Structures are given as structure tokens and as C-alpha cells.
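note to self: dont lose this again. the chain is below, predicted strucutre after it. 442 aa total, dont forget to put it in the shared folder this time
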Amino acid sequence: MLTVQAQDKKWTLRECVEYALENNITIKQSALNVENAAIDKIDALGNFLPSLNASASNFWRSGLSPDPISGTNRTQTFRSSNYNANLGINLFDGLRNVKQFQRAKLNKLLSQYNLGKSKDDIALFVANSYLQVLLNKESLKVIEKQHAITLEQLKRTKDLVDAGVLPQGDLLEIEATSADELTRIVQAENAVLIARVGLAQTLLIKDYEKFDIAEQDYLVPSSSILNKSVDEVRSSAREARYEVQIAEQNKLIAEKDLQIARGAYYPSLSGSLGVGSTESGADRVVFNDVGVPSTLAPAPFFDQISDNYGLSYGLSLSIPIFNGFATRNNVKRSKINVKRTQFQLEQAELDLDSNVYQAYLDAKGAAEAYEASLVAVKAQERAYEYAKDRYDVGRTNAFDFSQSKFRLENAQSNEVQAKFDYIFKIKVLELYFGIKVADIKL
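---
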């Protein structure tokens, strides 16, 4: 969570995007998946290595029991211990270990692609939220600017009414316009606050009420990307976007799973090597030349370990013959999954082509709409100046003048909306072209 005081900082778009990429929970979860995939790869590599296990036991026995060293039965209380080490190695398992390692590498790459997609999605969402704050702020400025004009006109109209030049109804009309603008200013201020809070919450900033973005003059970006053909953008998207790459990796993993499933048809061969020894604290029973037994103290520990040392080694071959159709069904399921991922890849390619084409048309349409809004604003500004001049000399009434000012305000609001809609859609198209959101310039 953010610890700096939000009121002391004005956030730029780049700072918002970079902060989101560092702190977003979804991205953190995707990063954990990458770490987990790396561990899985180490697991798969470990399958090629031999296994080594050691064991030791120590116990006491009382009563009639066989001596662990001599093997004779007698009533006694003694201690004995066993020490063993075993080495096992998989010599052949239908190449399943090889395929598992290859699958682990594919899965690690897939997790990296998913992380990249999460970053792109979050960055684009943050950029959209940021632009929404800008849009609402610009819309508020338009209304406030028009309200300032209204207040000036209200003062002038009041003077003219007091002088008997204009009727009282004109003053009431201007006052009603002023009251309506005040209401819309409050609504616009609320829209700015809601948009700022939404962006702050997206960034996981606690002090979201004081969070604000940098006040800058955001110019309309160059539309040079629209000079490229849609096929050129689509070709770049195939290389830059993660959707198709993720689908391709899923298909490769499914094919590798099929190979692993088929490996169960083959025999498996393993080797083992074991060493062990025993030691006992029981007294030794020895016989002299005439067969008379005598009892001696236990032999020294290391002498017993050396004398009782044993070695075992061998090979184990397992041949699958019948397991209730489990292997065959696993192979069939893997084949079905390969086909499914192939369809998903084809669908991802179709969706990407469709999205690129739609983004291209949206950007072109937004560019045309923005250009048209600029023309509309200029036309409405001329119409407003003409209406103002006529109103000042009493050639038109307050209602017609207010309508002209309202049309100008509406045209200016449409221009602001078209401007930021154009900016966002250009950035979406640039993202498909391979320009990361964090690198965009406004």
C-alpha cells in the first residue's frame, strides 16, 4: 500500500502504470505462478538424478529372542542397531522423464506469457481509468468556463433590465441558466472525484480521497499508426500479443502430455544399490575346543560394523500388460485435449484478427469524430459570438441566446469526449502494434 501522502504528489500516467505493475495483486499472483513453474522445472530435472536414502534404527529387546549377531536363541536383554543406505536410479521409463522436463520448460514459458498478458491488461485498464479522470476534469473546466461567461452575462443583463432596456424575463432566463450550470458543475465535480477514487483504488492506494493526477496539457497523439495497413498491424500483433502465444504454448503442452501418456505403454527399468550393517550390545557367547560356552563382552562398535557389512544390488524391470484400460484412456483423453487446444489456438488467432481490425476501425472512426468535433466547436463559437452581439443590442431574447451558449458548451464537451476517446483508441491500437502501455506518451 502507498505510504506517501497523496496530497503532496500529483501522479503522471507513467507513474500510475509503473506503480500498478509493481503492486497489483493479479500481477503478483501471476509472478508467483512463474516462480512455481520454475520449481516444477527443477522437479522435472531432479527425475533424472538417482535417489539416495539412508536409515538407522536402534532398539532394545528383553526375553527369549535370537541374537542379531550369532542367531542363537536365549533369554537376555540387549540393544541392537541397523544402518542402511540405498541408491536407486531410473534407467528407462518410456522417455517420460525427458518429456516431463520438456513440458516443464513449456509451462514456465506459458507462465511468463500469462504474466506479460496480466501486465498489459492492468496497464491498459489503468490508462483508461487515468484518461477518464482527465476527461471528467476537462468536462468540468468546460462547464466552469461557460458558467463564468454566464455570470458576466447575468451582470450585464441585470444592468440592462434595471435600465429598462431588456425585459425582466431575460434576467430570469439567464438566472435559470446559471442555476442549471451550478447543478451540472456539482455533478461534474462528483464525476471527477469518483473517477479519481476509482483510479486510486485500482492502484491500491489507501488515501484515495486525496489522490490526484498531474495537471498537464495532454495533446492529441500523432496518428502515424493509422498510416499503416491493417495487415501490418495484424502481423505485428501476432508477434507482440500474448493471446496467441498463450494458446500456442497450451497446444504444445497438450502435445507433450500426449507423449507422456504414451510413455506408459513402454516397460520401465530401474537399478538399485544398497549397503547395510548391524551392531549389537549383547554379550557374545563363544565355545572352547571342547564345546564349553563362555560369555564375552560385546565386540567394539566399529568392528561389528565392519564384520556385519553387507552389499546388495540389482535391476528391476516392469512390463505393463493390463491396467484396466487406464493407459489407453489416458492417451485418448490427451488426444482430445490436443484437438481442443488446436481449436483454442485457431480461435485465439481469429479473435486477435477481429480485435485488431475492430481497434483499427475504432481508431480511424475516433480520429474522424475528433476532427469533426473541432469543426463543430469553431462553428458554434462563431454562432455564439453572433448571438451574443445580437443579444447585446437587443436583437434577440435571452432564451435564444442561452440556447446558443448551450450548443457551444455541448460542442466543447463533445470535443473533450472525442479527444480522449481518440487518445485511448490510438493507444489500444499501439498496444496491438507492440508499443507497451508503459511506453506511451501523452
